[in-house]
Amino acid sequence: MNKYIKLMSFLLLIIVTLTGFGLYKAQASSPYPELKVVTTDGKPEYIEPFHFLGFVSDTQNYSNSSTIVFKDGHSRYMEDQTFLERIDFNYNPQLNDFITDHRSFMRGKSRRTEHYTETEQHVIYTGMESDVYWNQPSRGLMTIAVLNKETEEEETFSVSLGSDGSYYEVSATYVNYPNLTILAATNHSTDISEQFVYTFDVENPTEELTETINLTQEIDSNGGVYFGQSFDRTERFIPIQSVRQTDDSEFDYTEEIIGYFAFDTQMQELIDVPLFEEDTLLFADNDKLYVGKDLGDTIELHEMNADDQNLDLVGSIEMATPTIGREEGTHYNNLFNQNITLLDGRLYAYETQYSDDISRPLFQITDIKTQETLFNGTIEPKDMAKHDSTNIDVFEFRLDTLNN
Amino acid sequence: MKKSLHNFLKFTNFELERLSKFLFALMGITFIANLVGYIYTPMKYMGKINEYIAQNSATSEQAIQQYGPFSFYNALNSFWIVGPIALGISGFIFYSFFIWYREWFGKNTFAYRLLMLPIHRMTLFYSKLVVVFIGIFTLISTQMISLFIGYPIVSAIIENTYYVNQSLMEAVQLHPLFLYLFPLDLGFFLTINAVGLVVLLVLFTAILMERSYAVKGIVLGIIYAVVALTLVLLPLFLPDLLNNHYILYGSELIIIEAILLVIVAVLSLFTSRHLINKKITV
After folding, report:
1. Which end of chain A is more exposed for a tag (fewer CB within 10 A), N or C?
2. How far is B43 from chain A (nearest CA, A)?
3. How many CB atoms lie within 10 A of CB B75?
4. Neighboring chain A residues of B166 at a CB cutoff of 8 Å
């Protein structure tokens, strides 16, 4: 046995050290702070529909940073996920849920949230062929796939938008099953991108999509046409914002809102929305259209009659800060109202707050009927004494009212 | 069975004996360089802080603003820690060749005696493979032990005002190099080691090809390595072949890769077995 002493010693050193390290690691605390929901107003359970991906970082030690998933009122660091979970992780909360719940349906489909619409019975995918394989010229083919969540049956259609080689970009698809209203942009006839509305009937499919309206021409916008952020897309109306672009220099331009419109997916017509002298906000919720007068500390919310454009005052909603949900930002993915929305009778707003260069997300949920604040609060480290230099930034969020 | 295990242990011990000087040298360099890093890096930082305060009549807050606070991570990120790791990695890449070619050095080649022994020749192969891994893991263990020694040294040298109270594990987890070396994430650690094992098997097979067929063997060895690499990398091109970038999930790709690695490993073992038993020339 003595002749193997060196071999035994090396093996013992390896086993003891690796085991010791493993035990030490198991008892050592995570370098990332535990987070808690801080409720200023209302009840913490109302924050559950807020589902977001965030970035937690330390201003004193920037390498001490990690991605966090906040879901159902609880947070989980990416480091706490298993190796394979992390491999399949998508930086979008909705797509992560889809991949978990409908893995087979999601295979071969794009990873852009605007290509999906979820209802209680279905998940609908509308994406261009070029969205899943961009190494070849566009054939103008759109894949429409419908998953029945109950039976797990999938129906797929390949429809043409034209074979002139133009690229199309799907902005959103609204569903009033079996009718789909698809918003897509292309620049096939002009240099600037034009927004089109197409319709498709899942139960009476056609080989080509039916073009309902060229929004850019109809609105006569020289700049951009943006759509209201919707986490549901089963609403009857699609809020539309029209902007005018003014070139400030060769490299820079400013945008000015010149009008609001709503597209009625049932009547297939464009409705002009009256503007307030103050900043105007436009929302759709279920089959209703709401227009808000932004007064900073409050939003005066009106329900709009689509037939005569008359406004009925719903109430005045007190906002947590004069800017929450209404910070000027970019129109990422051709969307406006990115941080404020109405869903099932509630107003959801979000903003990043800074205090001594430390950022925190601020959330507000208000019942529009009663104007009662259901939740107003933030998320911060549990141990503030130890983690007072921790930043929490939200970079992708959704409202998941179907599961909450 | 018992006899072959005994032979395997005997050869592993023999190979380890031959590796030990090289290994002790690497362990010594790691320990000494690390120790220098744990003392020199924080002292250099404190020296800069003291000099700044003295020259500018500055407060400690101003000094922190100028140089930032110091944490154990800063010590880990120094040349004195990273350097020996790089040396260890390159040392074992070199040793993986040397462990075979040393047998053919000199006039009376030792390989002749080894291959004439009445044992399974693959025992030699497995012993060399295991010894390389024992060496790598011993060096990893040395690095781990060194961290536990260095942690209190660094915190003792840096004054509290300038020290970021970061736990040892926090500092280790933040260092990208230790993610590959230490079992911080078991799945990742096993993957890295599995890939390392297959690379070593392919390398050993290529070396045996060269030893079996001389110049022709070099070409064969290179072709074998390229084919093995192509086979392992093939799934990465599947999305292009199937005109869809989302046809496979990342986890599925990992599982396919794992299966291909096993195939390459088994193929390498069988090829090596054939070469060492039938083709190798002394």
Report:
1. N
2. 20
3. 27
4. 31, 61, 64
Number of Cβ within a 10 Å radius of residue B176 = 8
Residues A387-403: what's their mean pLDDT? Answer: 85
Strand partners, A25: none
B173 in contact with chain A, both atoms CB, cutoff 8 A: yes
Pairing of strands A335-336, A224-228: parallel
Distance, in angstroms, between A76 CA and closest chain B CA?
16
Residues with Cβ within 8 Å of residue A31, at least 6 apart in sequence: A64, B166, B167, B169, B170, B173, B174
Measured CA to CA, the distance from residue B243 to residue A244 in angstroms comes to 39
Condensed to tens digits (0 to 9), the pLDDT of residues A178-235 reads: 999 999 988 766 667 788 999 999 999 999 888 899 988 888 766 688 999 998 899 9
Nearest CA in chain A to B13: A7
Q: How confident is the model at residue A248 (pLDDT cuts 50, 70, 90)?
A: confident
Q: Helix axis angle, B186-233 relative to B79-101, nearest 10°?
A: 50
What are the pLDDT digits (tens) for A89-114?
888 888 999 999 999 999 999 999 99
Say what the pLDDT of residue B259 is: 96
Q: Which two tokens stand for residue B95?
A: 């040793």
Q: Where are the domains of chain A?
A: 108-213
Which residues are CB-neighbours of A298 under 8 A, at least 6 positions away? Answer: A316, A317, A318, A319
The two tokens of residue A42 are 């209302």
CA-to-CA distance for B72 and B158, rounded, in angstroms? 10
**B164 SS3 class:** coil
B183 touches chain A (CB under 8 A): yes
Peptide bond into A178 cis (omega under 30): yes
Say if CB A279 and CB A326 are below 8 A apart.
yes
Contact A301, A369 (CB under 8 A): no
Mutate to test the interface with B, among A5, A7, A84, A95 (most CBs of B within 10 A): A7
- Determine contact: A24 vs chain B, CB below 8 A: yes
Contacts of A109 in chain B (CB under 8 A): 246
| Contact call for B141 and A18, based on CB within 8 A | yes
Q: Can you tell me the distance from the alpha carbon of A329 to that of A20, in angstroms, rounded to the nearest whole number?
A: 51
| pLDDT, position A254 | 81
Q: Is-contact B132 B96, C-beta < 8 A?
A: yes
Q: Are B97 and B128 in contact (CB under 8 A)?
A: no
Give me the pLDDT at residue A323, please: 92
- pLDDT of residue A289 exceeding 80: yes
Q: Does the pLDDT value for residue A64 go beyond 80?
A: no
**If contacts are CB pairs under 8 Å, which of residues 35-74 in chain B contact chain A?**
69, 71, 73
What residues does each domain of chain B span?
185-282
With CB atoms and an 8 Å threshold, state whether A87 touches B254: yes
Interface contact B251-A82, CB threshold 8 A: no
Other CB atoms within 10 A of residue A343 CB: 19
State whether A28 and B167 contact (CB < 8 Å): yes
Please tell me if residue A62 touches chain B, with a CB cutoff of 8 Å. no
Q: What is the ipTM of this complex?
A: 0.89
B12 CA: distance to closest CA in chain A (Å): 8
B250: nearest CB among A20, A88, A135: A88
pLDDT of residue B193: 94
Place of tokens 């064969």: B220
Chain CA centroid to CA A88, Å: 19
The 3-state DSSP class for residue B158 equals coil
Laid out side by side, the sheet with A335-336 consists of A269-273, A253-264, A237-247, A224-228, A335-336
* B134:A14 CB<8 A: yes
* Shortest CA gap A78–chain B (Å): 12
